[in-house]
Amino acid sequence: MNPKVLSMFHNAKIFLSSEELKELALCIDKEFGKIKVQKEKEPMPLENWTQESVTEYLLATHFKKKSKA
């Protein structure tokens, strides 16, 4: 976090009540919108590390033909 923003946050925690902090958070959300956090995709484990299973997995996922739209 930016040091300037961190300083303002600590000052707000000191000088504002919990209700005022919630009101401030709502105002910030309205003004700038909520930050969307994306989940990281978990890698799909391969059951067998044989040549056939790896080839089948890659053909099914990575080497698809791109459709022309």
Keywords:
mainly alpha, 69 residues, 0% strand
List the topology elements:
Blueprint (H helix, E strand, L loop, with lengths): L2 H13 L2 H15 L18 H11 L8
Concise synopsis of the structure shown:
With 69 residues, this protein is mainly alpha-helical. It has helices at 3-15, 18-32, 51-61. Helix content is 57%, strand content 0%.
Describe this structure in words.
This protein is mostly helical and 69 residues long. The chain is built from three helices and no strands. The radius of gyration is 24 Å and the shape is elongated. The mean pLDDT is 78.
| Helical amount | 55-70%
Q: Beta fraction of the residues?
A: under 5%
For the biggest sheet, the summary is: none
Q: How many beta-strand elements?
A: 0
Low-confidence stretches: none
What oligomeric state is this?
Answer: single chain
**What is the alpha-carbon Rg in Å?**
24 Å
What average pLDDT do the residues reach? 78
Order of helices and strands: HHH
